[in-house]
Amino acid sequence: MDKVLIITYYWPPSGGAGVQRWLKFSKYLPDFGLEPVILTVDPQYASYPQQDRGLLEEISPSLEIIKTKSSTGIFSAYKILTGRSEIPYGGFANEDDPGFLRKFSRFIRGNFVLPDARKGWNRYAFRAAQQIISDEKIEKVITTSPPHSTQLTGLKLKKELNIKWIADLRDPWTEIYYSSRMYQTIPARKINRVMEVNVLNSADRVITTCNATRDLFRSKLDSDQSPGKIITVTNGFDPADFKYGEIRPVDFTITYLGTFAGNYNANVLAEALDYCEARNIGEIKLNFIGKTDSTVERLFKDHRNVILNIVPYVEHTRAMEYLARSAALLLVVPSESKHDEMIPGKLFEYLASKRKIIGLGPKESDVADILEKTKGGKMFTKNDSGELGEYLISLKADLNNGIYESAPEGLEEYTRKTLAGKIAGILNSV
Known about the structure:
The protein is α/β, with parallel strands linked by helices. It folds into two domains: 2-236 and 415-428, 3-Layer(aba) Sandwich (Rossmann fold), CATH 3.40.50.2000; 239-411, Rossmann fold. Helix content is 37%, strand content 16%. It is built from 14 helices and 13 strands. It has helices at 17-28, 73-82, 100-112, 122-136, 149-161, 186-202, 211-218, 267-278, 295-300, 316-324, 346-353, 366-374, 385-400, 416-428; strands at 2-8, 34-41, 64-68, 140-145, 164-169, 205-208, 230-232, 253-257, 284-289, 306-311, 328-332, 356-360, 377-380. Helix 1 packs across helix 14 (416-428), helix 4 (122-136) crosses helix 5 (149-161) and helix 8 packs across helix 13 (385-400). The longest helix is centred in the middle third of the chain and has 17 residues, at 186-202. It starts with a strand and ends with a helix. The model has no long low-confidence stretch (mean pLDDT 91).
């Protein structure tokens, strides 16, 4: 089998959707005649916002993994400056009620640590990649981000070794939804844009996780570049993760899985719950599983018909059990414009769980299109509280009649194996 080097900062025991993307692709790429070699940071030098040691059990014993050191100065300084021990999420920009010191740390990060705070790994990753490529005669390299600094390692490898390079960008770069909270100056924004455009133009192929990001990146290409080099390969789900047995919802529970940042807007759900309370539909349980901003408690704690349950990050296997015990699943699209739209990775696992999805966000979006195509749920905007309230009432009535499973269509398109086949096709095309 042909070997392909995959350079990724996030790898088990790190948790999160970004880890699972390439963990799962590495599982299925051998089925398409490709042998992945993983280059990542040693966990003792890594800065992970969350950990999931259960994912270590999913790594194939035959998978070759090389780990390196990394410098962690920016995170050490952040901890000293703010007095916080945990690693921040989302570029330091989704913290609860930031005070002066935290705002100052954002300013430093947004203007002097470009493109991101994990750039300290690059020199170690580059040296290791050089050695691996030479020793194992590897001709094709994939870099995956965030952190987008990892793409600069791919850029340097492309320039110095002339390998075939595929850049996988799971999120937008300069238009990421929290960029406006980083207090970037005009020179910093320009530097960031130059790095982004260099990566997009230099890579042989660019992979995105949604069509909105694909179209955004295509608009940044030089005129001599083919727009077709930028391709969408969404996140997905692994059917092996959905073996629930007899687990089912007992009461009307709505679950949100993953990070819920301060700029995520769930006001329409709060208004819809008021609508339900006025119609005496009974008790509704709300689960928020993961890093949750304090706005959630302020938004829902005073609803008399709501039992609010906030649970810190749990391992992936347990998170899937929470989905199985739910009557409906909450999905929030945090985009502030079409340009920064993303498809949350959880969407595909929500669909695979066969529970109705309550989507909050724009109705003209990739997420809304997928929900409509699969018949997996409905999208509601900030002005749809009455419509959402009626939807909740109908879901509660279905549960009372023993109906809680949805029947989404066309899910084979989103299995990890199918998507790994798309990755293999891209690799074979360069």
